[in-house]
Design goal:
Helices cover 11% and strands 29% of the residues. By secondary structure, it is mainly beta. The strands form 4 sheets. It has a 9-stranded mixed β-sheet, with helices on one face. A 5-stranded mixed β-sheet has the order 7-18-17-14-15, with no helix packed on it. Strands 6-12 form a two-stranded parallel ribbon. This is 2-keto-4-pentenoate hydratase/2-oxohepta-3-ene-1,7-dioic acid hydratase in catechol pathway. It comes from Azospirillum picis.
Length: 282
């Protein structure tokens, strides 16, 4: 299944994407999606719904985050060796974990707001792993059984803020720095999360081309590792790192996003996003 939410911010309705890629309105049967819907029982109930019996949604409405109730966004740094190399940092021997503020969440095509004093705004296409069953100290062998599904995440980053200290969070958690979607693709439709191609363009120019095949630590390893240090709840997202091609690593000079730039990105089978960079205004 492909689950999504559409409509004005804060007033999104639940939807399903049918086999022809058409958006269907589920709001006649229920309210917005919550983490309870991502549990095995919740997904089983949703799978019993026949999208062909739901009304089609006219036009191209705004898409929001595919569900409500994300309690945390767990991010993994430098999880592709060639990305680590382009930043000049050593390849990690265990996952680098940081958190992204949930106030950064936004829809997949919402504007990216450049904060005041921002001079080094950057992009990162990433595979998002959505938790469906509470995970505490799970093994790698058990890990994928705790996944509800997968989504596209743009880990928008302000490098000047990020590099001001050893903690990356303030360069990662500004408003609009976590576009998620366009939908949540349930795990049964992604038989191998380590075989997904990914890409990102800026103003039509290809900047990132990669594959989850080249992760240093795969999805199962990351989920197991994170669950040893924090409880992962249904709806939590693990953003699993980015392949090479970020702005800070461009040669001969870094490339930074500016107002008016358009970023498009996608992952095989998970859909695509599009954001326009806009300046912050009170």
């Amino acid at each position: 299944m492909k689950l999504c939410q559409f409509g004005d911010p804060g007033r999104e309705k639940p939807g399903l994407v049918d086999e022809e890629g058409r958006l269907r309105d589920l709001s006649g049967l229920r309210g917005a999606f919550t983490p309870e819907d991502l549990s095995p029982d919740g997904l089983s109930r949703l799978s019993a719904v026949d999208p062909r019996e739901l009304p089609l949604v006219d036009g191209s409405p705004r898409l929001g985050v595919p569900y409500h109730g994300v309690s945390k966004i767990v991010c993994i740094g430098l999880n592709y060796s060639d990305h680590a190399a382009e930043t000049g940092l050593p390849i990690p021997t265990e996952p680098i974990v940081f958190l992204k503020a949930t106030s950064a969440l936004c829809g997949p095509d919402d504007d990216t707001i450049q904060p005041p004093r921002s001079t080094k705004l950057d992009w990162e296409v990433e595979l998002g792993v959505v938790i469906g069953r509470t995970a505490r100290h799970v093994s790698e062998a058990e890990a994928l059984g705790h996944v509800a599904g997968y989504c596209v995440v743009n880990d928008v980053s302000e490098r000047a803020f990020q590099m001001q200290s050893s903690q990356w969070d303030k360069g990662k958690g500004c408003d609009s720095f976590a576009p998620v979607g366009p939908w949540l693709v349930t795990a049964d439709e992604v038989p191998d999360p380590q075989a997904l191609d990914m890409w990102l363009d800026v103003n039509g120019r290809r900047m990132q081309t990669g594959s989850t095949r080249t992760m240093i630590f795969g999805v199962a390893a990351l989920l197991s590792y994170c669950s040893a240090y924090m409880t992962l709840f249904p709806g939590d997202i693990i953003a699993t790192g980015t392949p090479p091609g970020v702005g800070m690593g461009r040669k001969p000079e870094p490339v930074w996003l500016k107002a008016g730039d358009v970023v498009t990105l996608g992952i095989q089978g998970l859909g695509r996003q599009r954001q326009t960079i806009v300046p912050w205004r009170e």
